[in-house]
Amino acid sequence: MNVSGHVLIAGLVGHLAQSTIVVLVAWMLTRALRSNRPGVRFWIWFLASAKFLLPFSILVDAGEWFRRMVAAPIRESAVLVVLTRIPLAPTIATPPTSLGFSTNTRGSSVLLVMIGMIWACGSLILIARWWRRWRRICLVVRRALPSGIPADVPVLLTSALPEPGVCGVINPVLLLPFSIREHLSHDQLRAVIAHEMFHVRRRDNLLFAIHMVVETLFWFHPLVWWIGSRLIEEREGACDEAALQAGNDAKVYAQGILNVCKCRLDSSPLMISGISGADLKNRIIRIAEGHAGKRLGAHKVALLTVAAFLVIAIPAWIGLIGQAEARVESSSHESSADLPQFEVASIKPGKPSPKGSGVFINGHRFEVIDTKLEMLISFAYGLHPRQIVGAPDWTGRDEFDITGLAEGDTQPTLAQWKLMIQKLLADRFNLRYHRDTRDLPVYLLRVVRSGAKLNRSEGAPSALPMVFFPGQWGKLVGRNAGIKDFAAQIQNVVLDRPVVDETGLSGRYDFTLSWTPDESQFTPITERIPPPTDPANAPPPLFTAIQEQLGLKLEAGNARADVIVIEHFEKPTPN
């Protein structure tokens, strides 16, 4: 299963867990409010149902968006060295021996497809059943006759229904059986119609239709069906209470409901708010006793307010602090207090060098040779040049030589070097920016169907990851490197768009990738790539080599990606 499948399943499981917790909270709240009006409990259950349609990720994204508006730190990815021009006198490295490590994803992908098909079949069955009942109700309405009874909505007479009921969502009508007058007195009928009119005013059919969408999408979750029964019970209780408060006699109203139930042959079809729903025995007892729920006291209003606030605030807070905590976890020892400083740093116009051009780190020495600033920004923030928005034209045109020495005895880590470079850009180039996300054309790095072909690294886990070009066009070497490191470096070859890791592989690997570059690669690093000396035995093109040698593939697509938007950037004074 590729990372998209993992993300889908993880997201669904998380959403179901969140919704289940909300249902349990709703149950506790309704228990605490059992002596209060049923209309309040109805809305609690309805909101618990609606939660299934509204993932907390929306609130998490809102919190993250707010954090982006007030803070600018960017997540870094680790690559030891970036070469932007390769010397024409290459040094050849010996490729490692393949250990044949493979990750097969076919079985889990088939399982995911089967789960999707089972879910789709269940949803389609429910849609077909409800559509058939809805069509039957529409036919009943077309054949019904006007009754002449004044009410908030048209009142029609039919022989197809055994009890009164409101049908329709947008333009509701009240359907009454032809024989209703034979079973109910005038006062009983008036009370029953009053009950149905409160269904209309409360928009109960519309609200229950929304819950039906929840049932269609989450039919496999038993709590969804339990919520449906609670909604029916509380809506009937709310309309009973409203009918009594409208002046109808309790005993007359209770007898009217009993008379309706005596002539009812089966339950009302869905999409109809009838008179006989919920627990009939308890309803009759409450009605006969004239029981009315209490109004919410101040302490219960406070309870509901706190519960609503926590439901909204907790996921938003997660979004507000989550990314910051992730950065702290990924570089726990990179706090600003411990960040090494440049003892000395010089910036000069770039000059060609026999070493080539690029970003080099050696011990305490940091060196940028004949390199454009857009490449340095990309290295410092772990971004592709396309993810840098609003940079002045000269950042992609002028080249610089930068030399820096880190102070202290401890050699900086790669993450520390990147933070030091970010600070250098802010201090010497007056770089100011804010963080955002954009839809960008990308290459999606994925595992091929037969599985990845990667060698597990035998180096120490604490060793620096290295992904580098060993001075040769068309050769990339990785040592103790993660796939994200490989993705960050391969986009220096495929310069037209960023590379997004969707492999789901989290290990450290050693690899050597050899391919024959074409004219679209390494530009504008070099004007001409030398042709292969032995065309007959030349390595395959890049995309084919990645599949054959690493068991990965690059697929063009679009994705939401982090960007930094440059607000201010100026040339430094050379020193």
Please describe the topology of this protein.
Layout: H1 3-32, H2 38-50, H3 57-70, E1 82-85, E2 102-103, H4 106-143, E3 145-146, E4 155-158, E5 165-167, E6 173-177, H5 180-183, H6 186-202, H7 204-217, H8 222-245, H9 250-263, E7 272-274, H10 280-288, H11 298-330, E8 342-349, E9 357-362, E10 365-372, H12 373-381, E11 388-389, E12 399-406, H13 414-428, E13 432-447, E14 452-453, E15 455-456, E16 466-468, E17 475-481, H14 483-490, E18 499-501, E19 509-514, H15 542-550, E20 552-568
Parallel strand pairs: 4-6, 11-20, 13-18
Antiparallel strand pairs: 1-9, 2-14, 3-4, 5-6, 5-7, 8-12, 9-10, 10-12, 13-20, 15-19, 16-17, 17-19
Please characterize this protein's 3D structure.
By secondary structure, the chain is of the alpha+beta class. Helices cover 44% and strands 19% of the residues. The protein has helices spanning 3-32, 38-50, 57-70, 106-143, 180-183, 186-202, 204-217, 222-245, 250-263, 280-288, 298-330, 373-381, 414-428, 483-490, 542-550; strands at residues 82-85, 102-103, 145-146, 155-158, 165-167, 173-177, 272-274, 342-349, 357-362, 365-372, 388-389, 399-406, 432-447, 452-453, 455-456, 466-468, 475-481, 499-501, 509-514, 552-568. Strands 1-9-10-12-8 form a five-stranded antiparallel beta sheet, covered by helices on one side. Strands 3-4-6-5-7 form a five-stranded mixed beta sheet, with helices on both faces. Strands 11-20-13-18 form a four-stranded mixed beta sheet. Helix 1 (3-32) packs antiparallel against helix 2 (38-50), helix 7 runs antiparallel to helix 8 and helix 9 (250-263) runs antiparallel to helix 10 (280-288). Mean pLDDT is 78; it is low at 71-105, 265-270 and 322-337.
